[in-house]
Write a sequence for this structure.
């Protein structure tokens, strides 16, 4: 039996193994994507942050309103004293008027601060609503995508089983020593034990074969390997 006929089933076996590796890589990528959706995680984090800011803003608004209520209460008490006629001392009246004036200025500033906080709350509420809508749409899209990906996983699994069955049959037809040699080369040659010969050169390392090497590959009965990369040479007539 010529080298071509001996190497042909090994080359077929390698094609099956390469396809199985590709399937495994795709399955791993899909599985990882299903477990770890960074886009959704980012949107959830942004929503949580927006809600925290809104909560802090609402607390600030409550505190601002409490402060304004306290100022109004104090101002009302002082104005009642000022206009009730109960205070007759000029010095005390002057002091009371100054205190009322000070509280009115403080009241004005506090009202401005309270309005600013209320405006901020409105902005934060809008941001939270926007983040919630973005997350809702992203989750809907993800549900559709993940359903498609899970269906693809089922397809890949079916394909894997078919290839595994084909590989088992092909490997079972090979001599044990030949199969062992193939498996050893796969482990030590980046998963490529066989290299096709095209245009009189090894297609893996691109080294040109001599005339005698080409003759042995075409007509010889023993497995031939590339003198440069060490892979089994397969010449497809």
């Amino acid at each position: 039996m010529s080298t071509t006929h001996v190497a042909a089933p090994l080359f077929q076996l390698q094609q099956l193994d390469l396809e199985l590796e590709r399937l495994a890589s795709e399955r791993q990528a899909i599985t990882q994507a299903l477990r770890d959706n960074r886009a959704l995680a980012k949107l959830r984090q942004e929503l949580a942050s927006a809600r925290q800011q809104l909560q802090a803003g609402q607390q600030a608004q409550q505190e601002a309103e409490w402060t304004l209520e306290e100022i109004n209460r104090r101002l009302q008490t002082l104005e009642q004293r000022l206009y009730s006629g109960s205070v007759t001392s000029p010095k005390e009246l002057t002091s009371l008027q100054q205190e009322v004036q000070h509280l009115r200025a403080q009241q004005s500033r506090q009202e401005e601060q309270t309005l600013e906080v209320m405006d901020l709350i409105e902005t934060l509420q809008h941001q939270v609503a926007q983040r919630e809508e973005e997350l809702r749409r992203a989750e809907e899209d993800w549900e559709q995508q993940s359903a498609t990906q899970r269906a693809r996983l089922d397809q890949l699994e079916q394909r894997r089983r078919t290839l595994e069955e084909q590989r088992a049959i092909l490997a079972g037809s090979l001599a044990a020593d030949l199969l062992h040699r193939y498996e050893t080369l796969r482990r030590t040659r980046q998963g490529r034990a066989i290299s096709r010969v095209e245009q009189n050169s090894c297609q893996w390392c691109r080294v040109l074969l001599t005339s005698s090497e080409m003759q042995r590959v075409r007509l010889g009965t023993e497995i031939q390997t590339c003198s440069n990369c060490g892979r089994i040479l397969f010449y497809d007539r």
